[in-house]
């Protein structure tokens, strides 16, 4: 049993705790109401200060036209430009081509077409006089080859006596006497071929048929 002298104190402390709980609930409700009220403002500020992504940079870049001095004379400057500048310019033109083409300038359209399909790199046209050089170098090569061929034959020794008509005719007679290839060759019946004869006579070639000592 709790003494009656303590009942007022216990009742007072219970009342104070109940009032504190009600105050906390009221503060929590007011805080939630404030958060709901300021939520759109916080969201808008978050979107305003959102980090710049590659898509936003791309849309910003594609929204602005490339200046005419940058594209002026691109046909003459393209091959002499560093690869890094070529890549940057092509990226800008590619972003510009993603928008409505009616918003592109005439210089941008010409530059985009020329870079994509123009006569440069593997599609470059032959320089003037290229075919004349090819024919000249080919003629020089043929002339040098012919000169070497004639020089070798001019200073070479005469052919051996086995490369004469007389020697080859004697070879045919020997093969016929030995009945070599009698079915369809030189010893066959009714053979009309030349056999091994393929050279000029010894007199025409200036070759002696006498054996070398």
Structure in a nutshell:
The protein has 213 residues and is mainly α. It has helices spanning 7-48, 54-63, 68-71, 74-77, 83-96, 106-117, 130-155, 165-177, 202-205. The chain is elongated and about 145 Å long.
Structural class: mainly alpha
Percent strand equals under 5%
Number of helices: 9
Number of structural domains: 4
The quaternary organization reads as: single chain
What's the Cα radius of gyration? 52 Å
Helix content: 55-70%
What is the number of strand segments? 0
Largest sheet at a glance?
Answer: none
Give me the strand/helix succession. HHHHHHHHH
Q: N- to C-terminal separation?
A: 157 Å
The residue ranges in which pLDDT falls below 50 over 5 or more consecutive positions are 1-12
Describe the structure.
The chain folds into four domains: 7-46; 58-120, no CATH class; 130-157; 161-205, no CATH class. The longest helix is centred in the N-terminal third of the chain and has 42 residues, at 7-48. With 213 residues, it is an all-alpha fold. The chain has helices at residues 7-48, 54-63, 68-71, 74-77, 83-96, 106-117, 130-155, 165-177, 202-205. The protein starts with 6 loop residues before the first helix and ends in an 8-residue tail after the last helix. Helix 2 (54-63) crosses helix 5 and helix 5 packs across helix 6 (106-117). The radius of gyration is 52 Å and the shape is elongated. It is built from nine helices and no strands.
């Amino acid at each position: 049993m709790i003494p009656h002298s303590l009942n007022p104190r216990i009742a007072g402390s219970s009342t104070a705790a109940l009032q504190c709980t009600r105050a906390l609930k009221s503060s929590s409700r007011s805080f939630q109401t404030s958060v709901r009220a300021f939520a759109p403002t916080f969201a808008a500020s978050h979107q305003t200060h959102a980090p710049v992504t590659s898509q936003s940079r791309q849309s910003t870049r594609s929204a602005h036209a490339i200046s005419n001095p940058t594209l002026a004379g691109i046909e003459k400057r393209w091959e002499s430009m560093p690869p890094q500048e070529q890549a940057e310019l092509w990226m800008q033109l590619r972003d510009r081509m993603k928008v409505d083409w009616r918003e592109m300038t005439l210089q941008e359209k010409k530059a985009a077409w020329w870079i994509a399909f123009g006569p440069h790199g593997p599609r470059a046209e032959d320089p003037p006089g290229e075919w004349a050089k090819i024919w000249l170098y080919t003629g020089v090569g043929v002339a040098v080859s012919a000169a070497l061929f004639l020089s070798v034959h001019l200073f070479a020794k005469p052919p051996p006596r086995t490369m004469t008509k007389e020697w080859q005719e004697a070879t045919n007679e020997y093969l016929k006497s030995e009945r070599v290839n009698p079915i369809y060759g030189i010893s066959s019946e009714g053979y009309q071929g030349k056999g091994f004869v393929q050279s000029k006579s010894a007199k025409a070639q200036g070759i002696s048929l006498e054996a070398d000592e």
